[in-house]
Automatic annotation (TrEMBL):
Its main location: membrane. The chain crosses the membrane at residues 6-29, 164-184. Residues 245-457 form the Histidine kinase domain. Keywords: ATP-binding, Cell inner membrane, Cell membrane, Kinase, Membrane, Nucleotide-binding, Phosphoprotein, Transferase, Transmembrane, Transmembrane helix, Two-component regulatory system. It comes from Massilia suwonensis. Member of a two-component regulatory system. Pfam families: HAMP (PF00672), HATPase_c (PF02518), HisKA (PF00512). Residues 184-237 form the HAMP domain. This is Sensor protein. It comes from the Bacteria. PANTHER family: SENSOR HISTIDINE KINASE HPRS (PTHR45436:SF3), SENSOR HISTIDINE KINASE YKOH (PTHR45436). InterPro entries: CztS_silS_copS, HAMP_dom, HATPase_C_sf, HATPase_dom, His_kinase_dom, HisK_dim/P_dom, HisK_dim/P_sf, Sig_transdc_His_kin-like_C. It catalyses: ATP + protein L-histidine = ADP + protein N-phospho-L-histidine.
Length: 457
């Protein structure tokens, strides 16, 4: 549903208050009119008793003939009172009815107080009541009928209804007004959020929304928005770090390529010199190409675009496969590869092999010539450990916490010369994160171990 929330809620308030005020008004109106009619009934029965008493007096006959109006005048509001007295045969002994009203005559009940009071409407449209009773006149039974027209009642009830309608309308209007005022005030924190959101820029994602002064209903929204901002900030920082690193890492090899090529082009060279240049260029270009591949893989892994296809892999087989693959490279450095341990690991085969290959190539590069590079399993409750260990100079403790950062090389000078990208371990870290595990380095005086920890099951 579109439109203004304030308007909708205010309208709802108007309707609710109007309906409840109308209900209350109706109830009060009925209670009031009912009470008035009940009092009228009591008064009418009282009048009936008065006439009965009058008829029972000594000079009732005389009164009836000489001053018939007296029967009516004893009644308050007498101009609206009607009195009729009939003898046993139904002959009229008295009929005071100046406006010639036609009204029903209630039948007599066995007990006087049970005689019903009938309601009728006068010729002028006013409500009226009639009651009937018996008496004795000079020893003869007579019937008395007393009626009353409440000419003022209609106007009074109409006034009362009018007032109730006015009160309902006023209450509804007031409610609508108050509701809209309250909403305008109540929605202030939302406007504050909107104002804050309007200020969010790529470089200012770290500013958090103030949740202290916001009402509790908005707390979940603010918490969610702040979490979103934090994630965006994190992603943005990573991304800008990524592109800064990329530019930085690309600059040197590209400049090298450019410089070498420009120098070569400055004068005529022999075919042998061109060949040498091209070979050197190819080496540099291969490194750049590997760097681009690695960066792409890291970017995709961080975006969670890479979904590991987990399967149960026999560790023994994986180690043997790796050893076979790196045998030549190890031999070149007079190294021996030793595999130990068995069991299974739940992992994506391609990713696991990539991680192991990165660790093995590092180990082979840093191992002491003539030593043994070991592929082993470890034991840690809840985890499946795969370990690659080599002997060699210990890693500076200051480097240890940074090894898994991209482009981090402990020995920068040697790294760049050796064609390394400094991305191998960060790819290992990303692969382990994709598996819900982690990678660790343990360096002692003589050995360095890189450990892959896969969550067991
Ligand atoms: N087994 C090891 N012994 C000693 N130092 C190591 C070992 N493995 C890694 N390192 C250090 O960690 C750094 C980062 O390794 P990483 O694999 O990320 O990059 P790289 O090996 O330099 O480059 P690339 O993997 O692209 O060839 C290395 O430069 C090296 O200094
Ligand atoms: Mg490496």
């Amino acid at each position: 549903m579109k439109g203004s929330l304030t308007l909708r809620v205010s309208l709802a308030f108007v309707l609710i208050v109007a309906a409840s005020a109308a209900g209350l008004g109706l109830y009060l109106y009925h209670a009031f009119t009912g009470e008035i009619l009940r009092r009228d009934e009591i008064a009418l029965r009282g009048k009936l008793r008065q006439v009965q008493q009058l008829l029972g007096t000594q000079d009732a006959q005389v009164l009836l003939h000489e001053r018939p109006q007296y029967f009516r005048d004893t009644m308050s509001g007498q101009e609206n009172a009607l009195v009729r007295i009939l003898d046993a045969d139904g002959r009229l002994l008295l009929d005071i009815n100046p406006l010639d009203e036609r009204y029903p005559v209630p039948s007599l009940a066995e007990r006087a107080e049970q005689t019903p009071v009938l309601t009728w409407t006068s010729r002028a449209g006013a409500p009226a009541q009639v009651v009937s009773g018996s008496a004795r006149l000079g020893g003869q039974p007579v019937r008395i009928v007393v009626a009353r027209v409440y000419a003022d009642r209609t106007a009074m009830f109409a006034r009362y209804r009018h007032q109730i309608v006015l009160a309902c309308a006023a209450a509804a209007l007031l409610a609508g007004l108050l509701a809209s005022l309250m909403l305008v005030r109540g929605l202030r924190p939302l406007r504050a959020i909107a104002a804050h959101a309007a200020l969010v820029r790529p470089g200012r994602l770290d500013s958090q929304l103030d949740s202290v002064s916001a009402p509790s209903e908005l707390q979940p929204l603010i918490t969610a928005l702040n979490a979103m901002l934090a994630r965006l900030h994190d992603g943005y920082t990573r991304l800008s770090g990524f592109s800064a690193d990329l530019a930085h890492e690309f600059r040197t090899p590209v400049n090298n390529l450019l410089g070498q090529t420009q120098v070569a082009l400055a004068q005529r060279r022999s075919p042998g010199e061109y060949e040498e240049l091209l070979a050197s260029n190819v080496e540099e270009l291969e490194r750049l190409s590997r760097m681009v591949d690695s960066m792409l893989f890291l970017a995709r892994a961080q975006q969670e675009d890479v979904v590991p296809v987990r399967q149960l892999l026999a560790i023994e087989d994986e180690f043997a496969r790796m050893a076979e693959f790196f045998e030549g490279m190890a031999e070149e450095r007079e190294l021996r590869l030793a595999c130990a341990g068995s069991g299974v690991v739940q992992a994506d085969a391609q990713l696991l092999r990539r991680a192991l290959a990165n660790l093995l190539s590092n180990a082979i590069r840093h191992a002491e010539p003539g030593s043994i590079v070991r592929l082993e399993t470890g034991t840690q409750p809840g985890w499946t450990e795969l370990k690659v260990t080599n002997t060699g100079a210990p890693i500076d403790p200051r480097d240890l916490p940074h090894l898994f950062e991209r482009f981090y090389r402990a020995d920068a000078a040697r790294g760049a010369a050796g064609g390394s990208t400094g991305l191998g371990l960060s790819i290992v870290g990303a692969i382990m994160a994709l598996h819900g595990g982690r990678a660790e380095v343990r360096s002692t005086a003589a050995t360095t171990s890189f450990v892959l920890l896969f969550p067991a099951n």
